[in-house]
Amino acid sequence: MLIPALPNLHFIRLNYSELIASSEVADFWFGNNISSPRHQFYRNQLSDVVRLILLDRFGGAYLDADTASRAPVPTDIKNFIVEGNV
Known about the structure:
Order of helices and strands: HHHHEE
Shape: globular
Strand order of the largest sheet: 1-2
Helix content: 25-40%
Distance between the termini: 36 Å
Structural class: mainly alpha
Largest sheet: 2 strands, parallel
Strand content: under 5%
Number of strands: 2
């Protein structure tokens, strides 16, 4: 079983509204009514918004599963985001 093999892996339940409300994108997210599940961008953008907020708050790196790095990922900076074909 995968979970016992990874003792540092923890699952938590996120309250998306609370997380976004305490971030710098709150005015944009709630002001444009994107926070409504009926909004056309909600499902597509929610994971992107949450990912960026968590990176900003806790640092780290995010790489898609299909990302290949040509050089070591930097460890001496708090945040970085790479998009597209770099």
